[in-house]
Structure formats: C-alpha cells, structure tokens
Amino acid sequence: MNSSLAIFAVLAIALAVAQQPEDSTVLAAGGAGRPSNGGGGGGGGGPVNLEQRTVDQQNQLLATSFARAFPEDTPAEFQPMVVALYVRCQAELDNCADFLWETHLLREYRNCAMTQRRLCTQEMQELQAQLLAMADTNNELFELSPEEQEVLSQLGY
C-alpha cells in the first residue's frame, strides 16, 4: 500500500515539475510580449512572482486536500481511481493557470482555482463514499456464515 502512495506522490511531484518549465517559458514569453503589463524593466518581475506563488499555493492546497482525503492506508486497489481524479483536478487547475499566464488577471485566476478546487472537493467526497461502499461490499463477501465458521473451528482454524 505504501508503495502505491509513493507512486502517487512521485506522480504529483512529476506533474508539478513538468509544469514548471512550461510555465517559465510562458511567463518569459508573456513578459516579453506585454511590456505594458510590466510598466518597465524592473516592475515586470513582481506580478510574475506573485502569480507563480499563487499558482504554486493553489497546487499545494490541492495536493494537501488529496493527502487528507486519501491517507496512506487507502487500499492499493483504489489507488488508480484516486490518481485519476487527482490528475483531472490538477489539469483543471492548470487550465486556470494558463488563463492567468495569458491575461495576468490574478483575481479571476483565484476565482477559477477556488471554483475548481470546490468541484474537486465534491468529487473527492463522492469517491470516498464509493470507496467506502466498495470496501463494505468486499468485507461482506469475506464474512463467514455460521456453518463455515463451525467447519473452520472443527479443522482447528
């Protein structure tokens, strides 16, 4: 189980790292192509840093909420569903970030990111309920009838 969660963590980090170079080139191109947004040579760095920090914070909040919702003891057979949901949610946040890189409208980005995180939270809750129902069903399948328990006790188990 821990190896599955380690894979999940590596996947999350890989997504974040893979996003960084792309964002850096977009930021560099956006900064060079929009001198009016920078207001000058030194003023362009401030908004870009704030934008990047805001995007990083939203991505971290998403990762943290997943870590809380799906702890290390989440059964390995459910990990693909958790990872698929995480990837979908991260992609939606990335779409919000793309909007930010193109427009530099930080308030609108925050609204977009917050809305996406709310939707992901709802989906996480639904997935948790599904996983709980599946686990309950699996537990019921493994419960022994009184006759089966008697046979096992006679065999010494």
Automatic annotation (TrEMBL):
<feature type="signal peptide">
    <location>
        <begin position="1"/>
        <end position="18"/>
    </location>
</feature>
<keyword id="KW-0732">Signal</keyword>
<protein>
    <submittedName>
        <fullName>Uncharacterized protein</fullName>
    </submittedName>
</protein>
<feature type="region of interest" description="Disordered">
    <location>
        <begin position="27"/>
        <end position="50"/>
    </location>
</feature>
<feature type="compositionally biased region" description="Gly residues">
    <location>
        <begin position="30"/>
        <end position="47"/>
    </location>
</feature>
